Amino acid sequence: MAAAAARFEEKSQGKYSAICITMVVILLGLPLWWKTTETYRASLPYTQMNELDILLLDISVPVEVVFARGTLTAEQQKKLLPQTQFSQKMNQLDGKTGFKYRYEKTYRAATGIEQDALMGENVEVAVVTLSRVYESLVGSVVLYVVPADSQLLPQEVTVYIGKHRAAFLRSPVTRSHSVQDVLQDIDANVEEILQTMSFTDDMLVAALSSRVPSGMFGTDTFTDSMTAFKSSLGYEITFSLLNPDPKSHDVCWDIERAVNNYVQPFLDKLSFIANFSVDSQILYYAVLGVTPRFDKASSSFSLNADSLPHVINPVEAKLGSSVASSYPVLNFLLYVPEYSHSPLYIRDSSGSPVESNAFHSSRWGGIMIYNMDHQQLNKTLLPVSAKVDMARVMEVFLSQLRLLLGIQKVQPPPESLIQSPGNMIVTDWETDRLLWVRTVENIATATNTLTSLAQLLDEIGNIVINDNIASEVYNAMASVQQSLGELEAGRLLPAFQASKEAITSSERAFFDPSLLHLLYFPDDQKFAIYIPLFLPMCVPIVLSLLKTAKDLNWKRKMD
Questions:
Q1: Where are the beta strands (DSSP E) in 72-214?
Q2: DSSP one-letter code for 153
């Protein structure tokens, strides 16, 4: 009897032990294992991020229309001034992307200082005077309406666009015009001027091209956009002198002085848009890689337009940057032809020589061919020492640099004249046009990045989302919303600064290295790792529980 009691007690203890171990595993072991092996995912605003997939920009352009004395009758002035009018346009690109913009036009009379400037006979003097008196808002336009018989504008000119943010219009208003007719006549001219000094629909469509399916629009819409580099926080500019025949040419170029005199003032003007770094180099025995054709009629060599694309790759292989950077590089090459191929000219599709003897490649840079004095080469012992005319070279490179950075050529209205920027290199309204495009492009890129990140994190649930990524995402979201709000309010510069912050934070979050830690560690691999660890422990526990359940079932039947 004692032995039987001992065996019963031993079985009971085994059952209780199995049950206790099972309870410990279920209540303590499994939660602890689940907690220690779970993927940390900081909270993100997924709803707001997915809402960015639909982007409808609302842009406001502040416009002041200032009437000089003698342009309006007393009755017209009483009914019209001061007054604010809105004209709105909308362009829906597809179901998810579009933009609308409005010109917020304020009509007022010229102040005393403005009137004194407008009564002169030199419009360039008036431009300088008015720019010193009033500091216009970035992105805004001021239109001064002067009398039809004003001596301020040349006789054949109806519209004069200054190098700042002011334009001058010879008044189309007559005394018989009603206020409604006055508004219609003025507004027709205002919109033509704004198409030159501000943005156009094509510019905004090109800036939003990353959100629009390719092939939706014709190639003409994106011609200028494909030439310019995409928006970036910085650019590297490299000037290279290629001397393939140093035995014949001893070329001297004062690139440092040329950059300081011509390029740096232009870059200083755009310094708030991006960071620029400039370097230079001289490459010897670097050839174009394309054999030019000899033209007997002109006793010269030529490169045809269809052969120019084949020049880039052989030359690019020899180029390099002295600074390791992720910024795009703009290459400007000055090529001095070798003695056996001199002089060398670029010819267009019609066979005529290109005046600048240069060409540029979209989103890469430009090449200029610089011929030495051919007569001097024949009469002088080699190598010939020659000094490059840097003023002529930089004039070509600056025009190419403007195109590559997105400062597009404009088509002025009929009977209009555009003031040369002079020492400014680039006018204020040209800078504003670039800012409009860059701001919209930054917003489009940032929203694309955020929506792609939301889709990625939603599809792959075991990617770690640390607090740093969450902070960048929230910052990017706030910056996008701020930029959209500033655009709607017509404040271009704050909108651009916010868009730069948005694209910076969104790309930091998307390309954070921590997102790759568990990217290729799916759930089936997790179970494959842990099953060999837990299976040896779970088998005896499960068998004990089955035996206990069997004994309880047998005991229930016996009772």
A1: 83-92, 97-109, 141-146, 159-161, 166-170
A2: S
